[in-house]
Design the sequence.
């Protein structure tokens, strides 16, 4: 800015900030920025946890739906003698195998579920007809147990009574996904009944 | 030396302005926070619904797999549905259920008669999620199916 009268630059006195003012401003800014960063970090953590919980729910639900679908379509292997009906579904701590009706040209195929435990990060894969296993749950199983339950009511010979068998499943989903973030645990405790197989056994 | 002083009036931010700014920011941030919390609550509810659905299917599947004539016509309350407990004194069938906390089960089996013969049985399974909040309405999950006579 130039004075019209003298043509000289005017001398403007600016008063600077005092040390106290600067310290107050820095302190306030630190508190506000710190609060925002803390809030955003919690927000992000919470978001990741929610995301992880969603994945657990999705994978857990998918596993349960697939296993139920296979069990509903499970059939008795006619190569087995009728008195070996308890072997219609073969279960070991790592494997669950059954013969499933596929609906394609009246064919049946062997379906196998493989559980690979690994220090709270277990996985489950499924293979049908000897094909390459497809991972259903990837590193999110904290613990899993499946057992075969059997019961005979109203007689022991074929046709005279009712034979029941079921798969008792206990699974705890919630392994660690992203580094340091754990989703909400999902516990599935249920018994699955292969309806067609039970009817075949009557 | 001619020294010209120019008086520059600097106006500071008033308290009202700060309050308006804080208010506007809160108005923007609070719905964001609330919607995020609602998302997490939704996930929690989905988990409970999966549990309830699984418990209901477990009961329905075993009744549907049972022989038509052995399935008793009755209403079973939660205290009558226990693992290994007989469904009724007239049938050898027993309940096979898993222990699931915070739910209540109820099963109703009713006859559907046609030409004075029971042709179908209507099976209704209801699972109620026990609410942790005493004032909240309990959530119910119901599935139905028909059991047909085979012969």
Sequence:
């Amino acid at each position: 800015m130039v004075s019209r009268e003298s043509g000289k630059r005017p001398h403007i006195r600016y008063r600077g900030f005092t040390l106290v003012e600067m310290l107050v401003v820095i302190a306030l800014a630190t508190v506000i920025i710190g609060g925002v960063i803390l809030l955003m970090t919690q927000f992000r953590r919470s978001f990741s946890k929610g995301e992880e919980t969603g994945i657990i729910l999705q994978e857990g639900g998918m596993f349960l739906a697939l296993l139920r679908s296979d069990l509903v379509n499970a059939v008795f292997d006619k190569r087995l003698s009728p008195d070996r009906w308890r072997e219609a579904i073969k279960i070991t701590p790592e494997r669950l195998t059954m013969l499933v009706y596929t609906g394609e040209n009246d064919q049946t195929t062997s379906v196998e579920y493989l559980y690979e435990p690994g220090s709270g990060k277990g996985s489950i894969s499924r293979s049908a007809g000897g094909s390459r296993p497809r991972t259903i749950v990837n590193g999110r199983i904290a613990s899993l147990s499946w057992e075969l339950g059997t019961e005979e009511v109203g007689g022991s010979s074929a046709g005279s009574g009712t034979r029941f068998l079921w798969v008792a499943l206990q699974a705890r989903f919630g392994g660690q996904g992203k580094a340091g973030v754990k989703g909400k645990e999902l516990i599935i405790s249920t018994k699955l009944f292969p309806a067609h197989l039970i009817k075949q056994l009557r | 030396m001619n020294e010209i002083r120019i008086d520059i009036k600097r106006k500071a931010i008033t308290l009202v302005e700060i309050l308006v700014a804080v208010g506007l920011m809160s108005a923007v941030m609070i719905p964001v926070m609330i919607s995020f919390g609602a998302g997490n609550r939704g996930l929690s509810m989905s988990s409970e619904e999966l549990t309830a659905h699984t418990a209901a299917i477990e009961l329905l599947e075993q009744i549907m797999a049972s022989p038509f004539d052995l399935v008793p016509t009755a209403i079973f309350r939660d205290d009558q549905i226990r693992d290994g407990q007989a469904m009724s004194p007239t049938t050898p069938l027993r309940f096979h259920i898993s222990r699931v906390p915070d739910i209540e089960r109820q099963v109703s089996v009713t006859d559907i008669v046609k030409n004075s013969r029971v042709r179908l049985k209507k099976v209704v399974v209801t699972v109620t999620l026990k609410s942790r909040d005493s004032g909240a309405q309990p959530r119910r999950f119901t599935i139905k199916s028909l059991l047909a006579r085979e012969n």
